[in-house]
Amino acid sequence: MSKKKGLGQNPRTGKGNQRTRARELQPNDAILIVCEGSKTEPNYFKAFKLINCRVEIHGLGMNTKTLVAEAVEKWKAFAADQNYFNQLWCVFDRDSFPQQDYNDAFELIRSESMKINRQYKKRMGTPIHFEAAYTNEAFELWYLLHFDYQNTGVSRDQYKGKLDNRLPKPYKKNDPTMYELLENLGVQTAGRQGQAFAIENAKRLCAHADPVQPHNTNPSTTVHLLVEELNKYLKP
Fold first, then answer.
1. Which residues contact 159 (CB under 8 A, 6 or more apart)?
2. Would you write out the chain's pLDDT as a tens digit for each of its 236 residues?
3. How far apart, in whole angstroms, are the C-alpha atoms of residue 109 and residue 91?
4. In terms of Cα–Cα distance, which of 127, 129, 123 is closest to 22?
5. Exposed/middle/buried for 129, CB within 10 Å: 0-12, 13-18, 19+?
6. Exposed, middle or buried: residue 165 (CB in 10 Å: 0-12, 13-18, 19+)?
């Protein structure tokens, strides 16, 4: 019985080729985004018009720790088909989930990141970046930061009222036009408001967050880190 030609083998000689194998396994800037919400967050991130980057976005409707565990399983399922992502982002909120589950989600990201890198880093030829794009207390904080600096914790219901007062139309959760609305804000105000302003405000919040457990500071967010990463691949 003849041997089956493996990945990276020369199709004519059947011999392995290290350069070919490395090229076939190279993720080439691939980002897997797994969201707690089934629509709000996926709708926002899907609105980024990107080039030179492969992006998969999934809205699972799961909370914190469960979401992280499922994100890892999804990443591994893709990897089993040699469909590699060099970035994995979990997008979730603090909301009213149990404190221990929320804290455990961050610990699980840390531990699973080390495991994935031990198992796949050499095979892929690049480290795998596993990160949380979290918001305390709700994703709507990220929207509000486009308008002004928010350093006082408020409830989810209060976020809606604040957005109603700032948006050109009443805020509706799962609105697929939010990215466009907020981008137009930046244009209309010549950058005084909008995404760049939101990133600046998010960084200010991070600078004042608890140094040990910044994710437990209300308000706080790291959504801007994922946004900055996606911005690297925006269509000109």
1. 138, 140, 141, 143, 144
2. 444 333 333 333 343 443 333 334 445 799 999 999 999 999 999 999 999 999 999 999 998 999 999 999 999 999 999 999 999 999 999 987 888 999 999 999 999 999 999 999 999 999 999 999 999 999 999 999 999 999 999 888 899 999 999 999 999 999 999 999 999 999 999 999 999 999 999 999 999 999 889 999 999 999 999 999 999 999 99
3. 12
4. 123
5. middle
6. exposed
